[in-house]
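LAB NOTEBOOK - FOLDING QUEUE
OPERATOR: T.R.
BATCH SIZE: 2
PURPOSE: Compare the predicted structure-token outputs for two unrelated chains run back to back under identical settings.
PRIORITY: normal
REVIEWER: second-year student, initials M.K.

ITEM 1
FIELD SEQUENCE / FIELD STRUCTURE:
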Amino acid sequence: MFDINTLKFDEKGLIPAVVVDALSKKVLTVAYMNRESLEISMKEGKTCFWSRSRQELWRKGETSGNFQHIVSITADCDRDALTVEVLKDGPACHLGTESCFNETVYQSEENHGFSIDGLMEQLEGRKADKPEGSYTTYLFEKGLDKI
């Protein structure tokens, strides 16, 4: 069993927690945990954070119903940051969006990573535009049996 006493909490007793959707691998939010909220999270199997603005424990979903069920918690190599993989009951952001990260600051024209959302967008585009010579177009034209 991992000893949480080996984690490096900052001078305020906090450690950043990057919350990731266990299915899509999309970053949902970055929050902070103190020792107590981490222990609660591990005991209850749902995320609990320390609200820096309210200076109190914050159980994600206790007012919205959008709980985050923990799949795993992993420490980084320096043990001063965590990733928390979750299965979520609803939107992660208080604005009602799936993730708190929706504002693209920069995107390379040359380098693109794979995503399920990107694949779905490409398939929908191929279905709508039916470009000649596309294998996807061929599949759509032949129907579900061929697909």
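ITEM 2
FIELD SEQUENCE / FIELD STRUCTURE:
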Amino acid sequence: MKFSNGLLAILLTSGVLMTGCAIGDDDDDKRRGGSLDVAPVTDVAYGEECADCHMAYQPGFLPARSWQKMMGSLDDHFGENAELESDVQQRLTQYLTENAADNSNYKRSRGMMKSLSYDETPLRITETRYFIRKHDELPRRVVEDNPEVVSFSRCEVCHTQADKGSYDEHQVTIPGFGKWDD
């Protein structure tokens, strides 16, 4: 097929523009969180209340139904009484459900939702198929047998940017083992 110089220039320019748009869209997508990991915690009260005992896990790691169930049974929160004043509990439940994995466009939130069946209501991120698949190459000795880590639930110990919502495997440093390269 033969194109005139004018038509060829239009086609090439369109291709460049389309490529430029794709790059621009990707950059915009990253700013919105579409290709990043999870939205960082933005609610100060949630961070303060929950981080007293453990990392304030990003809401985008569980679906809204999980957060609702968890927040509805704080009197027995994994064996501890974590009850809150009613108004605080309601506000935090709203924050968690509005920012839950099923209401998020972040990469790991989407991955989490794809791994769950419609009727699954996980309460532990570490017991989801998504989490297990992402951590299956880690031997027990580097996490559970490691006195500096102890548990997979301590994300922030190895994921050095976890508090920012970044779980990039290239930013993983396992205490006592160094940078992790699978």
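REVIEWER COMMENT (ITEM 2): The helical segments are 5-32, 44-50, 64-71, 86-98, 107-115, 129-135, 155-158.
FOLLOW-UP: none requested
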